[in-house]
Design a protein that fits this description.
There is one protein chain. 21% of the residues lie in helices and 35% in strands. With 117 residues, it is of the alpha+beta class. It has a 4-stranded antiparallel beta sheet with strand order 4-7-1-8, covered by helices on one side. A two-stranded antiparallel sheet has the order 2-3. β2 (20-21) and β3 (24-25) form a beta hairpin. α1 runs antiparallel to α2. The radius of gyration is 16 Å and the shape is globular.
């Protein structure tokens, strides 16, 4: 797996936390497929408040609306790798938003496997 530096492409998938793929959280399926595809990394962020196509605001502030909060899956890698992965999302994301934008990786640091750090 290569670690990108310099020009890269950011893939952001915006879905609801209750969205599923074969009885599994959709965000988890996307992350596992990204790993299987050899992408550099993927992170899932749970939103505090948001709305989508339905215009219904979901928020943590009201118990009755705290279900199905927004979730963002963010993946950054080379343009070639990210674009090769996007077709898998056609199958998975039936409701939501998929966004690509150019970015620049200015620093990439992380643990090395087996370092224990």
């Amino acid at each position: 797996m290569t670690r990108p530096t310099g020009r890269a492409l950011r893939l952001t998938v915006l879905i609801g936390e209750n969205d599923t793929w074969h009885h599994r959280p959709l965000y988890s399926e996307v992350v596992h497929r990204a790993r299987a595809a050899g992408l550099a990394g993927a992170s899932v962020f749970r939103g505090v408040e948001g709305f989508g196509a339905s215009s219904l605001v979901h928020t943590t502030r009201l118990l009755s609306l705290s279900e199905d909060l927004p979730v963002a899956i963010v993946i950054v890698d080379t343009e070639e790798r990210v674009r090769a992965f996007v077709p898998q999302l056609d199958e998975l994301v039936t409701e939501g938003l998929v966004v690509l934008d150019e970015c620049e990786v200015v620093r990439r640091a992380g643990r090395t496997p087996g370092s224990g750090a």
